[in-house]
Amino acid sequence: MLSKIPVDIKSISEGDIDKEILRAAIVAELDAVNLYEQMANLTKDENIKAVLMDVAKEEKTHIGEFQALLLQFDPQQKKELEAGAKEAEEVSSK
Question: In 1-94, where do the E strands start and end?
């Protein structure tokens, strides 16, 4: 599990630090979603399952928030995300 920022912050330029923080936040949220959904699938208790899945859903919202900010700070990321979505659509429609 992620417990610290996975890049050496000291090696990141001042102009890129916010982008790296946002990417690390996205990674942390994805890790949390994965963990909560795995635990939800393991438990037999429906109340625990419901809470875990609800929390996982909230983490997905956090991913969206961080991604929206990242796309504001990194136009190249936005362009490549759009290109990737287009490629996925083309491949999946074959």
Answer: none
